[in-house]
Amino acid sequence: MKTVRLLLIILAAPAGILFGLREIGGTPISKGYDTGFKWHAEPSIGRLVLSTEPEGNMTCRVKLKISGSNASFTAETSNKVRLKLVQESADPGYQWISINKDSPVPEEKFEWPSGSDINLDAQPKGQPLALSVADWYVYSSTKSADSSQLAHRRRILFWISLSLLIFSCAGVVAEGIEKYREKREPFSPQRCVELLIEAVDGADKKETKRMRTSLEKVLVEGSSVQEALAPFKVGLFQEKLFWVKTTGRFRSKLDYLIAELNRYRSRL
């Protein structure tokens, strides 16, 4: 379970990368400038309302794939700046509309003020019409282009990173609960013995591990000395020397603890 908790905590790294970083080594994690492009329809008056959330004013050109192959439209910003529309054919039942600056220059980009919308009205104006945007592109003059596909990919990355972050938080909480339980472990003679075993040291790391493992099997798990030493696969004489050395070190710590406890007891 500890391994699972650690793996969950490690998930915080990719979650943080997806949340906080936009590129690694100059390569974007999610391509395209996030314009925050949105749209909604007002079918009762045959209007599409376009909005964005750019970092200030944005100079751009917008291209939409909308329903209705025969409808004609006019467009202007919410602050009454008229825009030019260029209609192109698309799949049956749809058409492409390019929204540009109202000038003789083809596909000239217009300034989209921050906080303003673009109203796309079907003609004749006020005609009830069911409209929807099937695809869109925003071509900025200073940033990389954005599109519905790129926005969809960003949403997928967001939900993946959010899921990873939730799993990571669950791992942190589980690890915290486990550590709290360890700290709150009730005092008992066995716990005292376990602490003494953890304090036994050998000549090196390997011997220390063998001493603690064998003492735990014999004193805590109730195994015989032969069962405890069998995995080490050493000769009988070496087993006896090792066990004498191990018990000697454990007894010395145990005797010291008993002597100190008696000293404290005498003060009562």
Overview of this structure, please?
This protein is an alpha+beta fold and 268 residues long. It has seven helices and twelve strands. The protein has helices at 2-10, 12-20, 148-183, 189-198, 205-220, 225-229, 236-265, and strands at 23-24, 27-28, 38-42, 47-51, 58-67, 72-77, 82-89, 94-101, 110-112, 118-123, 133-140, 146-147. The strands form two sheets. Strands 3, 4, 5, 6, 7, 8, 9, 10, 11 and 12 form a ten-stranded antiparallel β-sheet that branches. A hairpin with a 2-residue loop joins β1 and β2 (27-28). α1 packs antiparallel against α3 (148-183), α2 (12-20) runs antiparallel to α3 and α4 (189-198) packs antiparallel against α5 (205-220).
- How many domains? The number is 3
Mean pLDDT: 82
Broad CATH class of the largest domain: Mainly Beta
How much β-strand is present in the residues?
Answer: 15-25%
Largest sheet composition: 10 strands, antiparallel
Give the uncertain stretches in residue-range form: 23-28
**Order of H and E elements:** HHEEEEEEEEEEEEHHHHH
**Which overall shape is indicated by the principal axes computed on the Cα atoms?**
rod-shaped
- Total DSSP E strands: 12
